[in-house]
Amino acid sequence: MRTLFLRFKSRFGKPAASLLLAATVVLLPAGCGRSKGPRKTMIQNTGSDTMVNVAQAWAEEYAQVAPNVSVEVSGGGSGTGIAALIAGTVDISNCSRKVEPKEAEQARKNTGKEPREYLVGYDALAVYVHKNNPLEEITLDQLAQIYAEGGKFTQWTQLGVKMPGGADEIIRVSRQSNSGTYVYFREAVLGKGRDFRLGSRDMHGSKDVVELVSKTPGAIGYSGMGYATPEVKTLRVARKAGEKAFAPTVRNALNHTYPVSRPLYMYTLGEPAGEVKKFMEWVHSPAGQKIVVKSGYVPLTGSGAAQ
Fold first, then answer.
1. Strand pairing partners for 236?
2. Exposed site from 71, 117, 212, 297, fewest CB < 10 Å?
3. How many Å separate Cα 40 from the centre of its chain?
4. More confident residue, 139 or 2
5. ∠ CA(83), CA(208), CA(232), 5° rounding?
6. Who's near 32: CB < 8 A, 6+ residues apart?
7. How many CB atoms lie within 10 A of CB 243?
């Protein structure tokens, strides 16, 4: 540490003795304050809220496999991930629905690259009710009558359910319109040409849907099966009245008996290279697919985890 004495001149150009100041300067050793070691490669990964849990688990595990790589995960919905892909501001986009042709065309125009699709697992889209709800199973048509525009079910007694405490109104919990889960549920459950009826409580995240249902006795909602908690009940679902209803499990999703199962995708702009390619290969490996199972989702058939 050195002390420097600074002498200033007055406005007339003469030294001003009264302005003699002492300044303490700390001289740091060479290299002090600089980062040590090689810089990490950053992979930006954003999109589907349904996939946030498994994506974060992949990122954490991969940090042990490749310490020189950091996978930065964020949610916001499949629409958010696709928008980032179109803008060319993300390395990998997570989607619980397919990229539409018009979206792929926008990406090509903006970036000059074709979106590359990767199937990375499956999700059984669970139907949740409060843990005290007596209902155990439901059909696709009954779900449509609850959620679709023009649907006739607004009270639990219409489903033959007597709610504890006498609260009979069905509180519909849904997702925001840019969610891939919202789009898939509309297509798979409501059917072509039908839209959601107004008045539902639309949540921004998959976890938010389950939390609201857990706190609302008369609520029903849909979300990924990996978000189940002890405070909610998942209903068995039948394709039609009179047919057997199945629970949202890995086994039932793999053998296609659960009727509301969907693929989960990752998208890159063009063929991935370098560390992004290595990460995608690892996601498809038995080690990566075991993370899918641990996170409550369905692995790719043919992977070690699927067995």
1. 137
2. 117
3. 24
4. 139
5. 140
6. none
7. 11
Asked if the 41-122+262-294 domain carries CATH number 3.30.365.10, the reply is: no
Instruction: Please state, in angstroms and rounded to a whole number, the distance separating the CA atoms of residues 20 and 4.
Output: 10
Helix (H) or strand (E) holding 117: strand 115-130
Q: Fold for 123-261, please state it.
A: D-Maltodextrin-Binding Protein; domain 2 (3.40.190)
Encoded tokens for 130: 């409060």
User: Which band of pLDDT confidence, cut at 50, 70 and 90, is reported for residue 226?
Assistant: confident
Nearest residue to 144 via CA among 172, 181, 124, 122: 172
The ranges assigned to domains in the chain are 41-122+262-294, 123-261
Give me 172's structure tokens.
């519909």
d(CA 182, CA 269): 24
Please identify which residue in the block is written with the tokens 């930065």. 72
- Residue 246 has what pLDDT? 97
